[in-house]
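Final report, section 2: Outcomes. Of the targets proposed, 3-methyl-2-oxobutanoate hydroxymethyltransferase is the one most frequently requested by collaborating groups, and we therefore present its record in full.
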Amino acid sequence: MEPIKPVNVAELRRMREAGEKITALTCYDASFALLEDRAGVDVILVGDSLGMVIQGGNTTTPVTVNDIVYHSRCVAPHLKRAFLVADLPFLSYATLERALDASQRMMQEGGAKMVKLEGGREQANIVEYLAIRGVPVCAHLGLQPQFIHKVGAFKVQGREEAAAEIMLQDAKVLTEAGADLLVLECVPSSLGKRIAEASKVPVIGIGAGPDTHGQILVLHDILNISPMVTIGRKPRFVQNFMEGAPDIESAVRAYVQAVKTSKYPAPEHCF
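The predicted structure is given below as tokens.
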């Protein structure tokens, strides 16, 4: 048997260039880390979504660096193949120094291989500062949950042409600054396609249509156990992969297969 080859930044770029869809899911503990890795998930995100699905909050803003480091440390040792990304939580990258300190903790203590931050071109100096110091960075555009108290609601971004053009330019600026990956959340499918086609790095969508280079969802959402699902505010882009599945691992495998074969997202999941 050939040894398992871990996914890295170069492999993600190869998948993009080859047209192979990238599968990503959130994860917060050892048991699911083993399961997701075994099921073939390419990228695992220890997301600040844990503030909602693990801690039971209404937003992600209370999540701390310590929280992400703890959960990342639970996940990292159990991944043989999947590439581990850790969120930088609210205001942990407000300055260059704080961003570097938080990233150091994510990678040295938490075992992450990449950090993710939210924001457009205004974060370019942070991305560059981290990148030239060897920190792989994933930028996050579109709907940005950490900005919820500023924007007031979880809603689709980039519907107007002016806003779409700004997002396109933000993606370009961030990748030129050194971002190795982009997450694009809650935007019209047409904009998701434009950004993916223009981007030099892989673009992972969540509610961004079928034409991004990969997809990411929150684990609890695909298992139909998210608080957002149980209280009736299920996001349009969520699909319940537990439906018809005999067990949890089968549901995760079904998600991976649906993304790889472009069966997910379907038109009903798109804006």
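The mean pLDDT is 95.
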